[in-house]
């Protein structure tokens, strides 16, 4: 109990405000896990502490050293050596955590506080780990004490040097920069020496310096960052977006303010790939592919890299001198000789800035772009990784092994935290998935053939052989488009049917990755494309970028790399649609899942069983869904009409299959020259060129094993982690006692929420069913618009409406701006409207800016009282965005995002892949294989407790789609209620939310509130009558205006009761917001 109280007292020294009980509980668990990682991996330091705790002088020295930070030893003499005991019973056995931190719990701040507490509290044992201290038990005690005294002395010197260095760095930084309100401004009046590279890079320039790429290689730069075995312990925090990572810097500033900066000797940096950090806009525009960007960066003479390169070469020469001469103290601090004000250059200045000030990615890029500095932020951040305690980085930089190696990230015995980990499985799979189009393969093949014709006599034999191998590789891929009738095959079957197993793909991958060939290919392709348009005296149209892209060789390289790294559980999909089967956004929904009138769950279970049976042959036809059948009902004649049009289009498409096959054969085999292909592309709008071969990776657990095997600790933390079994599968090879599960309570007050399910269409009095069959029913869309209008009318400031897919939102938006224009104008009189679109990064900023502007207006002078943001579940705005306080006071959920690809009603639909079924099939197969592998001996079964039983895995698979869909819904719910005093109302516009299996998936606070209002009835008061009158004025006006749409209304006995209940909910809604001092 005293230890717990000591922890609570000390963590409050770090936490910027009084922590909630849930926050204290999580921080304690995190600290125990992190503390245990030091002890379990480095038990040799226990001998050091056993000796120290017997020596009062050593204890005193350490206390004096650490008193400015946090005491390693508590002041109470009875427990002053508790941190030195390392009793076995005090050691936490768990190594990994799966933590569900509920909405509003402040997980970023809580997580960061526990990490900083650990780093400060255990500075000495982290120092011992870094120094690789070892004591032999057989040595005399006086020798051991002498060694430890020297270690403590070195530790004290290290602390003092760090403090002095930081003070000097701050003086220098304050001379060159002004730091105000989280902004960094360069002092232009101060002169700064700018390093420029004087080396000759032998650039080969074309007329505009764009046609030919330079041939300089920065191998020397890359080799300077070798992985060091004796690095200090580091903590990597991964998240999905840059904004989520930048949030940690704002939380760190709160902790710095609480502790004062001089007491916080923690270095936190943010890194990313070149895609995230490159500031050379010209290179970024020319290189859409990541591999191409990497190659171009390495080879080009970029002004931002020049100064950095010279400094690296200087450091490399100093290292060579150290091999000849004894290392002196002056050598070990080589940079210190340059730290005088008159010798500071841009490289040293930015290095000090990154290592002294904790600045986010936007700030780093802005400073490095300044015309007085001009240095590459990618290389600067990459070089300083080894100095950081906490490293923030996107998922891809850890999950993709190639990027991890490029950045020289060492995860061995370190700690990795995946924030917002509800999407980690999707990110693991996406990191290992890729697609390449038919046009890209054809263009690569024809360009290679022309290249070999021109340079065969000058190329060496090995290069000629490899290029011819790549041409054969392209031929085999092209034949696969037409020779195989199965759209989905597992990797093994794909390799056999495509005959790629006859090629040595490892040699092809090595050639493409390790030579300058890709660079030369791009230059050669660009020259040939330019020559074609020069000869024809025409301009280069935009269609060439899609079908004759000189970067196609980089995509083929990446495709080959991921094909080699794939395993037997992954799939290859021939995508004949214009979209990508890899796109896992919210544009997915199952028509009838959990609809009481639909087929039973058993049908889906049988489908998965069939998939398992087919897996032995590698074919997975059950993922190729049947066409949607019609639903001829009185209230969706328009939808039936559109469906018939779609069936006609499909029939016409089938009649032209032979012609399409003939054209495909022409595409694949007819072209002998690159110029013929370019001419064909310009003269024919051939949609078959857009077809793709896609590697669909589903083996998230296999790919995650390399991380759990190397890391000391893996921590998954997210707001909504259900079904939890899915995340436990990532650790299926681990023992059960190595995994800690934690779920926090909700911190906000139960009276701070208002929840209603709206199951009935108040115009037709049918049930609200947002499945695909009703998407084109105008009466249905009109009801959605009417309920959104009324339910947001009196709620000031932020209102957010989540639709289940982009397709649904687009259909609704099209309705509003056409038939629904009258009700749209009504909305626009009271609210500013914003609609989320793919790749639109300004909608969130505009929405929040308008809310701030409304709040600043005088209440009596306002024309509009708020905003409505229409967005999509499982898209950008549904995750990781904090709509705290007035940015969201009302959330409306329209539909449930069950999985199944949708298409527009006016576009002929080709069957597309059901990736969710592939994932479910993988979970079953992987769990069976792992069970056999982990339990080869029946006698060992009793000792090895599995993380999940077969029954639990089967149950998870049965309910997976439902729980996954509701996880997305619950994630949307969590966008509001961001702190203990926050409040919001929630409406669910779909009758399916009343189904028991869906209802049970709601968060506990939603279910508790809904259960408490089941017996609440309306009160026929004056207030009710007034609200009823206001409602009917709106209702009758809309109904009269749209009477041509509401033609299928049935006389329903309970219609008046339905409207009465709706008005009652409106009265309670207004009372709720009034009670919260909002209206």
Largest sheet: 7 strands, parallel
The tally of helices reads: 44
Global outline: globular
Strand content: 5-15%
Tally of distinct domains: 4
Helix content: 40-55%
Q: How would you write the strand order of the largest sheet? A: 5-6-4-7-12-1-13
Q: Find the count of extended strands (DSSP E, 2+ residues).
A: 19
The CA-CA distance between the termini, in Å, is 47 Å
Summing up helix and strand content along with how strands pair, one would put the structural category as alpha/beta
CATH top level of the largest domain? Alpha Beta
**Mean pLDDT over all positions:** 79
Keywords: ATP-binding, Coiled coil, Helicase, Hydrolase, Iron, Iron-sulfur, Isomerase, Metal-binding, Nucleotide-binding
Family: Belongs to the DEAD box helicase family. DEAH subfamily. DDX11/CHL1 sub-subfamily.
InterPro entries: ATP-dep_Helicase_C, DinG/Rad3-like, Helic_SF1/SF2_ATP-bd_DinG/Rad3, Helicase-like_DEXD_c2, P-loop_NTPase, RAD3-like_helicase_DEAD
GO cellular component, one term: nucleus
Summarize the structure.
With 1079 residues, this protein is α/β, with parallel strands linked by helices. Residues 71-89, 197-230, 323-342, 583-641, 643-648, 655-667 and 901-908 have low confidence and may be disordered. Keywords: ATP-binding, Coiled coil, Helicase, Hydrolase, Iron, Iron-sulfur, Isomerase, Metal-binding, Nucleotide-binding.
Describe this structure in words.
The chain is α/β, with parallel strands linked by helices and 1079 residues long. The chain has 4 domains: 1-80 and 90-176 and 716-743, no CATH class; 181-186 and 231-318 and 344-430, P-loop containing nucleotide triphosphate hydrolases (Rossmann fold); 434-579 and 689-696; 753-902 and 962-1078, 3-Layer(aba) Sandwich (Rossmann fold), CATH 3.40.50. The protein has a 7-stranded parallel beta sheet. A 6-stranded parallel beta sheet has the order 14-19-18-15-17-16, with helices on both faces. Strands 8-11-10-9 form a 4-stranded antiparallel beta sheet. Helix 4 (56-66) packs parallel to helix 8 (141-176). InterPro entries: ATP-dep_Helicase_C (IPR006555), DinG/Rad3-like (IPR045028), Helic_SF1/SF2_ATP-bd_DinG/Rad3 (IPR014013), Helicase-like_DEXD_c2 (IPR006554), P-loop_NTPase (IPR027417), RAD3-like_helicase_DEAD (IPR010614). This is DEAD box helicase, putative. One of its GO terms (biological process) is nucleobase-containing compound metabolic process.
């Amino acid at each position: 109990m005293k230890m717990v109280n000591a922890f609570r007292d000390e963590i409050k020294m770090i936490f910027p405000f009084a922590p909630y009980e849930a926050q204290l509980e999580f921080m304690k668990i995190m600290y125990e896990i992190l503390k245990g990682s030091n002890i379990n991996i480095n038990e040799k330091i226990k001998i050091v502490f056993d000796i120290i705790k017997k020596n009062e002088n050593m204890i005193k020295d350490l206390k004096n050293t650490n008193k400015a930070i946090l005491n390693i030893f508590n002041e109470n003499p009875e427990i002053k050596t508790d941190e030195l005991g390392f009793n076995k019973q005090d050691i936490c056995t768990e190594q990994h955590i799966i933590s569900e931190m509920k909405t509003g719990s402040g997980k970023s701040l809580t997580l960061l506080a526990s990490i900083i507490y650990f780093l400060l509290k255990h500075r000495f044992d982290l120092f011992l780990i870094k120094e690789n201290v070892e004591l032999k038990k057989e040595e005399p005690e006086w020798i051991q004490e002498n060694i430890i005294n020297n270690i403590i002395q070195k530790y004290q010197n290290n602390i003092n040097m760090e403090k002095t260095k930081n003070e000097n760095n701050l003086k220098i930084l304050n001379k060159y920069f002004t730091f105000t309100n989280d902004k960094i401004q360069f002092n232009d009046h101060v002169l700064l020496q700018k390093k420029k590279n004087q080396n000759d890079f032998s650039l080969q320039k074309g007329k505009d310096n764009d046609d030919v790429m330079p041939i300089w290689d920065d191998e020397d730069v890359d080799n300077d960052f070798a992985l060091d075995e004796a690095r200090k312990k580091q903590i990597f925090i991964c998240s999905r977006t840059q904004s989520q990572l930048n949030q940690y810097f704002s939380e760190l500033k709160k902790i710095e303010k609480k502790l004062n900066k001089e007491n916080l000797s923690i270095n936190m940096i943010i890194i990313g790939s070149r895609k995230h950090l490159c500031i050379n806009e010209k290179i970024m525009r020319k290189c859409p592919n990541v591999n191409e960007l990497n190659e171009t960066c390495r080879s080009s003479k970029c002004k931002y890299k020049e100064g950095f390169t010279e400094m690296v070469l200087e450091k490399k020469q100093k290292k060579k001198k150290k091999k000849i001469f004894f290392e002196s103290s002056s050598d070990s601090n080589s940079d210190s000789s340059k730290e005088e004000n008159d010798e500071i250059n841009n490289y040293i200045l930015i290095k000090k800035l990154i290592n002294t000030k904790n600045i986010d990615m936007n700030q780093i890029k802005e400073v490095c772009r300044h015309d007085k500095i001009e240095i590459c932020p990618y290389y600067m951040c990459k070089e300083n990784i080894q100095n950081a305690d906490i490293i923030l980085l996107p998922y891809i930089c850890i999950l993709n092994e190639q990027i991890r190696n490029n950045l020289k990230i060492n995860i061995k015995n370190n700690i990795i935290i995946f924030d917002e980990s509800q999407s980690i499985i999707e990110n693991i799979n996406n990191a290992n998935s890729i697609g390449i189009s038919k046009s890209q393969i054809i263009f690569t093949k024809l360009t290679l053939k022309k290249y070999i014709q021109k340079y065969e006599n000058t190329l060496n034999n090995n290069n000629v052989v490899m290029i011819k191998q790549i041409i054969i590789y392209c031929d085999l891929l092209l034949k696969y488009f037409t020779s195989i009738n199965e759209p989905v095959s597992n990797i093994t079957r794909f390799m056999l049917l495509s005959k790629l197993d006859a090629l040595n793909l490892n040699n092809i991958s090595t050639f493409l990755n390790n030579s300058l060939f890709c660079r030369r290919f791009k230059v050669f392709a660009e020259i040939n494309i330019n020559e074609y348009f020069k000869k024809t005296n025409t301009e280069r149209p935009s269609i060439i970028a899609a079908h004759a892209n000189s970067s196609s060789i980089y995509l083929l390289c990446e495709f080959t790399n991921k094909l080699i790294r794939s395993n037997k559980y992954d799939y290859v999909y021939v995508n004949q649609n214009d979209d990508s089967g890899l796109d896992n956004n919210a544009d997915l929904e199952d028509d009838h899942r959990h609809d009481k009138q639909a087929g039973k769950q058993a049908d889906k279970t049988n489908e998965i069983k069939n998939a398992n049976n087919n897996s032995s042959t590698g074919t997975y036809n059950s993922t190729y869904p049947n066409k949607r059948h019609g639903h001829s009902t009185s209230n969706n004649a328009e939808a039936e009409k559109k469906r018939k049009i779609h069936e006609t289009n499909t029939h016409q498409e089938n009649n032209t299959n032979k012609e399409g096959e003939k054209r495909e054969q022409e595409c694949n085999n007819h072209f002998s020259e690159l110029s013929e292909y370019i001419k064909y592309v310009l003269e024919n709008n051939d949609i078959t060129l857009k077809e793709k071969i896609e590697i669909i990776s589903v083996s998230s657990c296999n790919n995650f094993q390399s991380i759990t095997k190397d890391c000391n600790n893996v921590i998954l933390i997210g707001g909504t982690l259900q079904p939890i079994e899915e995340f436990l599968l990532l650790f299926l090879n681990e023992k059960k006692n190595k995994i800690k599960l934690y779920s926090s309570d909700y911190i906000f007050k139960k009276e701070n929420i208002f929840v209603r399910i709206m199951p009935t269409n108040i115009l037709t009095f049918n049930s609200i069913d947002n499945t695909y069959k009703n998407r084109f029913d105008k009466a249905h869309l009109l009801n959605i618009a009417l309920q959104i209008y009324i339910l947001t009318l009196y709620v000031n400031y932020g209102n957010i409406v989540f639709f289940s897919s982009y397709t649904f939102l687009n259909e609704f938006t099209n309705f509003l701006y056409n038939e629904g224009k009258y009700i749209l104008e009504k909305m626009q009189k009271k609210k500013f409207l914003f609609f989320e679109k793919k790749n639109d990064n300004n909608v969130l900023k505009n929405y929040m800016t308008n809310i701030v502007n409304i709040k600043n207006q005088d209440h009596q002078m306002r024309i509009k009282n708020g905003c409505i943001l229409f967005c999509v579940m499982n898209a950008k705005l549904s995750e990781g965005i904090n709509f705290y306080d007035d940015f969201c006071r009302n959330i409306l959920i329209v539909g449930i995002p069950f999985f199944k690809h949708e298409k527009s009603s006016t576009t002929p639909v080709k069957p597309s892949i059901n990736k969710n079924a592939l994932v479910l099939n993988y979970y079953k197969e992987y769990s069976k294989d792992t069970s056999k592998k982990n339990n080869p001996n029946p006698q060992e079964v009793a000792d090895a407790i599995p993380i999940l039983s077969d029954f639990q895995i089967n149950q998870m698979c049965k309910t997976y789609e439902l729980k996954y869909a509701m996880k997305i819904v619950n994630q949307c719910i969590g966008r509001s209620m961001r702190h203990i005093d926050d409040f919001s109302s929630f409406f669910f516009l779909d009758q399916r939310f009343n189904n028991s299996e869906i209802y049970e998936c709601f968060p506990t606070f939603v279910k508790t509130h809904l259960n408490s209002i089941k017996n609440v009835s309306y009160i026929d008061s004056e207030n009710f009558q007034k609200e009823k009158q206001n409602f009917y004025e709106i209702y009758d006006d809309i109904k009269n205006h749209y009477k041509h749409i509401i033609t299928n209304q049935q006389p329903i006995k309970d219609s008046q009761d339905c409207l009465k209940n709706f008005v009652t909910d409106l009265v309670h809604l207004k009372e709720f917001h009034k009670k919260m001092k909002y209206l």
